[in-house]
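FAQ: What does a multi-protein file look like?

Like this. Sequence, then tokens, then the next protein.
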Amino acid sequence: MEAIFKYVLAQFYNIYSPQQSFEIHYGLNNQSRIQITQTKFTFFEQTAPFPETPPTFYTWKNQKIPFWFGAPEVKEIITYVGDQAVIKADIIANAFYFLSGWQEYYSTQRDNFGRFPYAESLQSKYDFITIPVVNYYFDILKTAIEQVYGLKLISILAHEAPFTTCLTHDIDNCQTAWRVEGIQALKQGKWSRFSKLLKQKISGQDNWCNVPEVIQEVQKYNVTSTFFFLANNRKYKGIANADYDISQSRYHAWLPLLKQKKFEVGIHGSHITSFTKNKLQTEVKKLKLPVHGNRFHYLRFEPQITPQLLEEAGMNYDTTLGFSEHFGFRHGTCFPFQLFNFKKREAFRFFEVPLHLMDATLHHPKYLQLSASEILPAITPMLQEIKKFGGCFTWLWHNENFSIHNLTNGPLAFHQIMEYLQEQGSGFKTISAVVNLLEHPSGQVFSK
């Protein structure tokens, strides 16, 4: 369990970056200033994806939080004796289970796109997908440290603003609005709209060929965002990748424009890259500019293969890991973290920046099917959880959903969310800016 303890503690320090060391011991030794209960079990010595027993729920900060792995029934999670604190729940084992992605690493269940399904997860089974349980586990440790050492730990992302937002855009389609929106217009009997879309297509300006317009919409809020471009326009076993060729000058010209305006460009690894060696590097080269991060198309991610491929490709970050079917916390956290290398039993170098919300999730017929008026009320509790911990809200709004013809998860919903985030005091950063802050923290992040 030493490797597990070292890994989890490192992720805790990534968030708070304290400028001093703490005497923390995993196990009750009656000596260390912070002692964390280590339960005796063999779960992590085997390969079962899910605990056999249901969780025990503790209330922490008015929120019921699930605990597994021999969690005892206790009245108080932390007890203080003199200058020592004893945490009576095994927060290390529980945090490790979710941060490492244990359930999907060992589960064989995959959907038609090769993804671990939300319906198979513990979050779905026990209905806590919008609760960042790892941050609650960490908050227990944070509280014990603050009490024993007489200081205040602050999230490294919460110094400039109460919390941070990373707005992102996957550029999948730039040439097919005339067909998708056109068919919709015909079904609704809106012939003039269909005619306009068709004329746009014929003139070489499809309604979804709109990256400059997306830039303008984002700049209305005096912020920047991160764009992920597909560099593969070939289908894979009938599954579409890009409907445009990034090497063509009209599309490639967007990349220096984004850089000039302080936006970030990342690679949107095509459907084959998450499980095929060297493919990601090949696609990065097609962008012909420095790229620091990736998000895989269709959010495809194979835990036993993909992290190593990201490491080999030299990515500073990946931001794929969210569920397509539901917004929330796939790995239980609202902060970037490092995935666990099960073979080497240590953290991978790159940061995983978890994806909390995707526009397609909100209205897709196979997913939540929310109306425009239902979207913001539905996600507000999740946003409040992120704000509570000074975390990072990462969300995806595709370029095609900036079209005025999308009346569900389109520009109206986008602007409502943006206005709410600014009302709540969120700061906005590109993903690289957030990861750089975690890799190179500066300044004092605790106060006496």
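And here is the next protein:
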Amino acid sequence: MSMSRGLQNCTPRPAQLLDSDVFRRQGHQVIDFIAEYYSRISDYPVHPYVLPGFLSRRLPEAAPSQPEQPDPLSAALNDVRDLILPGITHWQSPRHFAHFPASSSTIGALGEALAAGINVVPFTWAASPAATELEVVVMDWLGKALHLPKSMLFEGGGGGTLLGTSCEAILCVLVAARDSKLAEVGDGRIGDLVVYCSDQTHFAFHKAARIAGLRKDNCRVIPARREDMYALPPAALQAAMQTDVEAGLIPLLLCSSMGTTPTTAVDPIRELCAVASPHGVWVHVDAAYAGSALICPEFRHLADSVDAVDSLSMNPHKWLLANNDCCALWLKQPSALVAALGTDDDVILKDAAAAAATDDGVPVVDYKDWQISLTRRFRALKVWLVLRCYGTDGLRDAVRAHVRMAAAFEDMVTSDARFEVVATRLFALVCFRLRPPTAATSRCEADDLNKRLHAAVNATREGPYMSSAVVGGAYVLRCAVGSTLTEERHVRDAWKVVQDHATLILAVY
């Protein structure tokens, strides 16, 4: 047998790998499986009770050399049901209150499936013209729905793109700011660049600063106080920047927050911009969670000061039903991002760009120059479908429902004298804790009581799953309402579990 004939016999025919009839049959299997999962999701503990290595001990040591017969997909789905689902944290559970939501919807999930099935790579306009242009449209649609300033939209001279996470967005704008500043002061002064944030800022900012090559000790972390609702104080920022300038350092970028992770605090963006502007500092707003709330008129005032910033990012996958992963980034000057991340060394890409160029003034967007990687997903398709199929009113309804349920939970907490709310609720997160039982109870003892309460609540198999944080030096529980499936009864049940365990813990204190 010749080598070529042997290869021909062992290579699967294309029809076997992407056959429309097989795809239809197997697609129904998967959709039915997911639908059944959602119908039974409340049967699972939200967080699994497993130890490291539990899954590897139950799966083979190596991949099979041949598919299982007669129906390998059914066999694999059985393993998903029996081995994998019992060992995951069920983020879509109606009793998941631990983290900001990873919101899901049927349209969001089907949009993911549609993008995966079409499987294009929209890294340049020429590579997938409609995919690129749909992303341009979607970014302006979404920006308008969130009441962002026109200067951040394509139609106003700015523009936006869809990335995977806010971590990527922060890194991209940090690199753009770095290169813009070094073009002014010289590459040799990269060690003098300083960035700023509060002690409530997400750690993704610190990671981005390290990746961007900034000195670790040139990240100024400014304390936020309870009396300021844990927002970054402008006076402290001004003092920090002035001190750095007097020391010969160069203020580079401020990462402000709209909805911090511990308490959803909102920084005073306009005042911070006034402090940063004289130093030529790039101001970025990390609105990963709370940016979705801007779709509601009652939160629109939070966007009033965004016209003063350079960039803003938020995650539609957190609270706008777009499914993971999806981060939207807008900039006033996309050219700074392209200058830092653009590529023009490939002859093929140059030829494609030349072929796509037009003489009628329509800009050609090559999104490979707006992000770190070249290969990218067609995320715009699912966001477009979510906007079309639910509409802005439907998205507002989803956000408002979660805010109402969080307000109801907050009322329950404040009605029980044993508990206190430790940070002002702005959106759908309630931070609370057991009060010290007696005047003689130390901070350490009070923290220990709340740690025990938190562990007991999460150990309840049919109960809620919550997270914790240290806020103002105190250990607190976090109840974040945001699962698409959560209803008022789940919130009431969660509070009853908290109360019951608090009674047991205090009884033996």
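Q: Is there any per-entry metadata?
A: Some entries carry free-text notes. For the entry above: Confidence is low (pLDDT under 50) at residues 1-7.
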